[in-house]
Write a structure and sequence with these properties.
two-stranded antiparallel sheet, disordered C terminus, 252 residues, five-stranded antiparallel β-sheet, 18% strand, alpha+beta, globular, 5 helices
Length: 252
């Protein structure tokens, strides 16, 4: 039976409204689970920059470990602690979206700092973990760099990416590549020099500020270098304040 144009239009509108409503309900219903997964993924990366968590298979155990060993705060570009946003609302480091912050000028960004303690009952901070964000070859790259108590020696890194080339730039997420950063230095005396991936692999005579690059992934390596240099620079004021004893944390 042939339907009129009015019937077809009304039917299409009704179907669109119904399906849209169902999708909205599904989105609302799934949001808590999605947020929980994002929280878990973030905290795994933070912990992964300072310790091996491969034996932790229970998400709740990972979250409990994080709560036990990690304290967090937010600083601005001057290294001063930030506790509220521009509207006066309380802010927490775990809720700061580094990717969204990346769109703002550096002097308007929030910079989370995560402090890792082997012994939660002690005032001693064993490592400082700094989140970072930048541009790779095809899309964004990100990372967490953990510095030892001296705020110079790299304890570990945890990199991520959206769309680097498999087998080439995507190797920044591999343990093989990330382990190259361990023990390297980011300061030369009082001067921040960061650490750089050099071109190619199997290089001899690398300094304490250099790591082997990735064959066929020079541009991704350059993206990582730029990200590390930029964000270590953003955190430099905070680092210097902690070193000078004005950071409200114990170094020993």
């Amino acid at each position: 039976m042939q339907r009129s144009n009015t019937y077809i239009i009304l039917f299409s509108v009704a179907l669109t409204v119904i399906l849209g409503g169902l999708l909205s309900l599904a989105s609302v219903g799934l949001k808590p689970a999605q947020q929980k997964q994002i929280e878990l993924d973030t905290k795994k990366k933070i912990l992964g920059a300072v310790m091996d968590i491969s034996s932790y298979n229970d998400p709740n155990a990972i979250l409990a470990l994080y709560d036990e060993k990690v304290e967090s705060m937010i600083v601005d570009i001057n290294g001063d602690e930030v506790t509220t946003d521009q509207k006066g609302n309380p802010v927490t480091a775990e809720k700061v979206d580094i990717q969204k912050n990346y769109r703002f000028p550096a002097n308007e960004r929030l910079f989370p700092v995560y402090k890792f303690k082997e012994d939660p009952s002690s005032d001693k901070v064993d490592a400082y973990i700094f989140p970072m964000f930048g541009a790779g070859l095809w899309d964004w790259i990100s990372g967490y760099m953990a510095l030892e108590n001296d705020l110079n020696t790299i304890k570990g890194v945890a990199f991520d990416h959206k769309q680097e080339t498999p087998g080439l730039g995507a190797r920044i997420t591999s343990e093989e590549v990330q382990s190259r950063f361990v023990g390297k230095k980011v300061f030369e005396g009082s001067e921040l020099v960061s650490v750089s991936m050099v071109k190619g692999e199997g290089n001899a005579g690398l300094t304490e500020h250099q790591v082997d690059g990735m064959s066929g992934a020079t541009l991704t390596g350059k993206g990582v270098n730029a990200m590390l240099q930029s964000y270590l620079g953003y955190y430099e004021s905070y680092i210097n304040k902690v070193k000078s004893g004005n950071g409200k944390v114990a170094l020993n």
